[in-house]
Each structure stands twice: as C-alpha cells, then as structure tokens.
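User: Here's a chain of 362 residues. Predict its fold as tokens.
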Amino acid sequence: MPTRPEDVMRLLTDARPGRLDPDGRPDAANYTTQSIPRRRSVPRRLILAAALPAVAAATAAAVVLTAGGTDPAPAPSGLGGAPGGSGAAAAPGSARELLLVAAAQTDASATATSGRYWVRVQEHGERKEVGRYGIASRLLIERWLATAAGDPNVEVYQDLGAAPVTAADEAAWKADGSPQQWTETGPKGTTPIVRTTAAGPRQVRAVRGSLPMMIAGLQVTAADLAGLPSEPGALKSWLTARLPQHADGDLFYAGRDLVAELPVSAAVRAAAYRMLADLSGVDFLGVVQDRQGRSGLAVAFTRRGDGGWGQQRLIVDPGTGRALAQESWFLGSAATPTALGTLMSWTVHVRAGFTDDAAPTA
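Assistant: Prediction complete.
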C-alpha cells in the first residue's frame, strides 16, 4: 500500500478513468505480484491480470464552478416490492422506463444549487487477479471543488485495503493461506506498490489551478457545464458535435458521466437521463446491488473491443433518480458475450452536493 503522498498521487495521475476502461480483459503479462502469506515463510510469484488501477481521474486544482450539483446522498429508497419504496407504483420493467422515471425524480428533487464547495465522495475499485482468485484494490476519493477563486480545491484520498472480490474469491484466498499482503510491480522505473488488507491513512491535499473534468473522454470546463442544454435533443446534439466518436456507446458514457460524475444542474441531469432513454443498445438488468450492498436498478451498454466483450453498467435508485454506481464488466472473448461476466472495476457514488462547510485540512 502506498503511504508516501507522491506514490499515491502517481497512482491517481497515471490511472485511467473508469469511463475509459478497455472493452476487453487487460493483458495478464503486464504485471506480477508477490504474495506474502500469513503463515508461510517463502513468498510465491503470482500473476495480476489488470493494469495500474483504473480508479481515478488525474489530480488537479482549483476551479470556479457555477453549475448545480447532484443531491447529497440520502439513504437509497428500498426496492422491496416496487422500486422507490412506494409499494404502489409498478417497478420499471425496461431500460427506457427506468431512465424516464429517474429523469422525473430528478426534475422533482429539491437540490441545493450553490455553496462554498461542491463535494463528491466516491469509492473506486478494481479487480486484480492473484493466482487462483481476485482481490479488490479500493480507494476512497473525496473532492472539494471551490466555487470561488479564493478557495483551493481539496482532494482527500485513502487506500481502503485489498480484499477478495467475491465469495468464490474469498474461499480460494482462504485456501491459499489468507495472505495479507501483495507487491505489485509496474513499468520499469516506477516504485512497486505494496497492497495489504489494512486501510491506509487518510491523506489531504490542497491544490490550486484549473481542474480538468471529463465527459466520455472529452475535457470540459466549468463554463461548458454551466452552459449545457437542458433539453435531451439539444444535449445530444451538443455532445455529438464535440465527441471524437459519437456512436450510441460513447453517448451512453457521456450520459452516465453527466448523471453520476459532474456538477451539473438537476435539469441537465434529467435531460441526460432522457437522452439515455432514447439510445439504442441500452439493456435493462433489473434489480442489482452495488459494492456497498445498496439495491438499485441497472442499465447497461455492451460492445466488443479488441480484447473481447465489455459491458458498462449504471445503477440507479429509481425512488430518488440518484446514480448509485457505475461498473465495468468483462463478458468473455467468444463470438457472443456470456450471460455471466466478471466485474473488473467500479465506482460507488457515496454522496455529492453543495456545502458551505470548510474543506478539510488534515
């Protein structure tokens, strides 16, 4: 686990955002790790089938924000019976129905539109193949984006510790002696990263300057976000004119970023949901749980890349219209995708919204 600030910042800077995850499985030959079992004196060489964490966007500095933000994170509404917890309304039965319900809930939300900071708290994770099982490499990233030029941006990050990803991974991990530590080696000239099951220290960094923000790989400014159209057709046209590629898959990533990642107004988020509802190739997955165990309904876009079939998922609480999580899955390299896939990386949206609180300093 990296403990020096420069090691952690290198991790964050070099990481690919989840929205740019490859459609296929990364090359297993790129990285190796050494397992240090709890009850063994001789370490073993193990293989990692994933690259450096695709868990965070690059670090950056202050920006003046004028757009609205997403709601502070309430507890997601229950999905027993009808999603949204009403018990009376019929649960959405298709991707289009879910996305239109989410848009209506977003329209109706009472969202704060100003504050000293816009705060976003996320948990990022990535699966690492370690021998016969996978471990989850997890980071908590908290961003305080200043709305006035006199305040710095603040980023807080914490390594949450590694753990087996699934129940099957946990069983294999226990059979392997329950190792508590692994060493990941990267490209020549980089410092090896030691990952352990223990959480690392909470680290705070204040930065000044401009902060890059991305929509489906397109860098945008706070002024761009403030001027986004709030009508779905106009929003699609705005994105189509700017994205290098504007197939439905790229528009799905763009819509997902707008509803889940960026400080845009509720009207723009609702428009993004409605744009997603009109895209072809968006599938309905029904009730799922995110990595924190919260229930929601999921939609997905699947396409084939050089390495195989990849699927991007968006998990939504239909009772509030809030995006709970986004996930990247590998569905195999055969001619057709498998029904069951492997979760490769994820972002859990813990909370986001405006606040007048002072940013943390330590």
